[in-house]
Amino acid sequence: MTEWTLDDVATRLAEAAETGRRLPRVRVQGYFNVWPAFVRDGWEGFDDKDYEYRPLPPTPEAVDRMLETMRWMQWLEVEQRHLVWMRAKHYEWKFICRRLGRDRTTAWRRWQKALQLVADHLNDRQTAASGHASKLEGQVGQCVP
């Protein structure tokens, strides 16, 4: 990726929120079932109304991207983190505004500012890495007679 934009950062945050939702639930360790798995008859396969359907677990690459995205949150203030994460989880602006005590336009501007802050950090890191590589190439060129 050449340069991070606000849409790229927002998409990545939404993907991280979805990946976090798809992670398996945390359970108490030590409890297990020793009964073997068995095949049920057709009449036993009636719909269970109380069954909660869980999405498929995320891929390891998606978890790695989510963890990287979580590291980006350290660049933001606490209120910005709440705002960005609530928006990534597709909360309505009405709920976000009530939670933060802000007007919708103000909340939207602060969301844009937080995304821009993350994008600037990411772009600075890319330019610093490319600048560091070009400095090393220049030094290597100087050392070779």
Radius of gyration over all CA atoms, rounded:
23 Å
Instruction: Name the poorly predicted regions.
Output: none
Class from helix and strand fractions: mainly alpha
Share in β-strands: under 5%
Explain what the structure shows.
The chain has helices at residues 6-22, 60-72, 78-88, 93-100, 104-143. The protein is an all-alpha fold and 145 residues long. Helix 1 packs across helix 2 (60-72), helix 1 crosses helix 3 and helix 3 (78-88) crosses helix 5. The protein is elongated and about 60 Å long.
Quickly list its features:
mainly alpha, about 140 residues, 5 helices, about 60% helix
What layout of secondary structure does this protein have?
Layout: H1 6-22, H2 60-72, H3 78-88, H4 93-100, H5 104-143
Helix pairs in contact: 1-2, 1-3, 1-5, 3-5
Quick synopsis:
With 145 residues, this protein is mostly helical. The chain has five helices and no strands. The mean pLDDT is 85.
